[in-house]
Specification:
By secondary structure, the chain is of the alpha+beta class. The chain has a single domain, classed as Aminopeptidase, CATH 3.40.630.30. It contains five helices and seven strands; from the N terminus they run E-H-H-E-E-H-E-H-E-H-E-E. It has a seven-stranded mixed beta sheet with strand order 1-2-3-4-5-7-6, with helices on both faces. Helix 1 packs antiparallel against helix 2. The longest helix has 15 residues. The protein is globular and about 35 Å long.
Length: 165
């Protein structure tokens, strides 16, 4: 497995193999944030195909609860491994480790990661990797569905922090 920084050609592969809901690609939006210097978008490849991704958001979590509890804390976000049969094989852990290494290279000593309260499997992984709960928050995002309607989503989450890296 290789983990690389996302390129423009990766976006089309990610859309094809690890799609996102709606007409506007999550991958394209993350790549645009990377080009703007707000994040580094990492892609895990296995035999040349994308099997996972995560975003090291240098601008941190947008939730006001998190910003108040830990100002300036960068966030690992959008972690996914696909297809499902590849989960629990170290891909997610490797992506988190690669994001943490990027933070260490920038001289940072802490990073955070959000986890849905309905996702105990991911929460257990992050705990094993050394992340501890900081605060609960509501993750809010939107997308245009296939019919062009704006869909607003709100997911109850917990923000976890690892310190020191």
């Amino acid at each position: 497995m290789d983990i690389t920084v996302c390129t423009a050609s990766d976006v089309a592969l990610l859309d094809r193999y690890m799609g996102s809901p709606g007409r506007t690609s999550f991958h394209a939006r993350r790549f645009a944030r990377q080009r703007a210097g707000q994040c580094t978008y990492l892609v895990a490849h296995l035999d040349g195909w994308p099997v996972g991704h995560t975003e090291m958001r240098w601008i941190g979590c947008s939730a006001p609860e998190v910003r108040a509890a830990r100002p300036g804390c960068p966030e690992i976000g959008g972690l996914a491994v696909w297809p499902d049969h590849l989960r629990s094989r170290g891909i997610g852990s490797a992506l988190v480790g690669a994001a943490e290494e990027l933070a260490r290279r920038r001289g940072l000593s802490a990073v955070g990661i959000g986890v849905g309260r309905d996702n105990p499997r991911a929460a257990a992984l992050y705990e094993r990797l050394g992340y501890r709960p900081l605060t609960d928050y509501l993750d809010r995002y939107s997308y245009d569905d296939q019919d062009g309607a704006l869909r607003e989503c709100v997911d109850p989450c917990t923000f976890l922090v690892k310190e020191p890296l």
